Amino acid sequence: MLKALFLFFMVQGFFMLLANTAVVRRLSPLLMLLATFITSFATSAAEVDQFSRPPELVLNDSSAVIAAEVQRRMNLAIKRANRPAPHLKPRKVQRVPKQSRCSVPRLYDSMAVYLARPIVGQIESYAESVADNDGYRIPLNRSIYRNFTWPQSPSLVLSERVAAVIRVGGEEVGTDKMGHFFTEGHTYFEMTKHLTLPVEEAILFGEWTESVYFGAQTTGVYSYADLVANFNGLRFWNRILALQPDPLLLSMTRPYVRCEDRQWVPEARFSWVEYVDSAWNESINCPVFRTLGLLEEVLTQAPLCTKDKLPQNRYGTLEGRLFNQAGLAVMPDYLQPEVLWLQREPESLSGQTFRRIKSLRERFERWRLEKELQLLESRRFEAKKNLNKDQS
Question: How far apart are CA 258 and CA 225, in angstroms?
């Protein structure tokens, strides 16, 4: 187990970085899927359990305090963006070229530095600290995932990382959604080249990451609520300068930042109200599971999925992609990695390669099952041995 944990932490940073680089996205789908299978043992993707909520618990609204932290970081990013870039700082014998201010790339880069840290984002970490007093946590061994094994859910079981839950306005959300909002939302923004490309590019990428290294292959869970947070994060990044229409409202909005006298200055204040809704809640916008076995383990805890509380008519045609209208279920075939890759890169995926990827995924699933059966048999043997020892 110690060796597994060592490899887990050593490899996780490398493959999470690898999986997001343009170089790897140009690799053949077969090589990419092989990398994601290794990533199954390497990522630190978190899940949240909102089904096991203590019934009498009343949470204070944390939206104002977290929004204030977001605004503080945005203001720091603005200050950074207004300073000369490091390579343009004066030196003793170097004349600094006159720089045109209000650099859009430097503003976006500065915002990413303060808000879009990979793996566990800054606001996600801050929300976790807020949850110490104004939230709740369900430990893995008491959660709906308590019976998951490491072959089936490596990153969840090895890290035991279950996100806390806080109240944001009128909704309860997992702190992991803050990471999705800022970090994955930023990835969506870059994937669409700052919304000059169709939103479909980002939606497909989000579905693919949930089917592979942020969800189904690493934790066994495909989260629709994560996808909703990702999409709203795209809206946030677009609104920094509001150069394109809001992808939900389909209209121009007031920017968070504007250029005045060749300096970036704050314009609108950040608020969670326009972003967070009930679709962020995993017990309303419920997840699906990679296999029937994982679903059955969850159903033994009798979770209640209240999908009737989803915000109808808010997301329009995207509801079919962002909402789980069916309730707790097995992940459908159209969300399998090879199917999504075919939609993302149809010209690069031949029928033969598609079948190879599917075959590889299915073989990997059989390997998981074999390892799980061995693990369960070992546990039964140990339990029987301990029982005999006690009786003697």
Answer: 32
348 SS3 class: helix
Both tokens of 199, joined, read 């939103």
In a domain, 20, yes or no: no
Question: Phi and psi at residue 318, in whole multiples of 5°?
Answer: -80, -10
* Close Cβ partners of 290 (under 8 Å, ≥ 6 residues apart): 152, 216, 217, 220, 221, 222, 330, 331
Beta bridge partners of 258: 265
pLDDT digits (tens, 9 = 90+) for 301-357: 999 999 999 999 999 999 999 999 999 999 999 999 999 999 999 988 899 999 999
Listed residue (106, 147, 143) closest to 375, CA to CA: 147
pLDDT tens digits, 289-298: 999 999 999 9
**Total domains present in the chain:** 1
Domain membership flag for residue 286? yes
Residue 361 lies in a domain: no
Shortest CA distance to 118 belongs to which of 173, 27, 210, 43?
43
- Is residue 256 a part of any domain in this protein? yes
Residue 232: domain span: 48-89+97-332
Name the band, by pLDDT with cuts 50, 70 and 90, for residue 385: confident
Q: List alpha helices for the chain, DSSP H.
A: 2-18, 22-25, 29-39, 63-82, 104-115, 122-134, 154-159, 176-179, 185-191, 199-211, 224-239, 292-299, 319-322, 337-344, 351-391
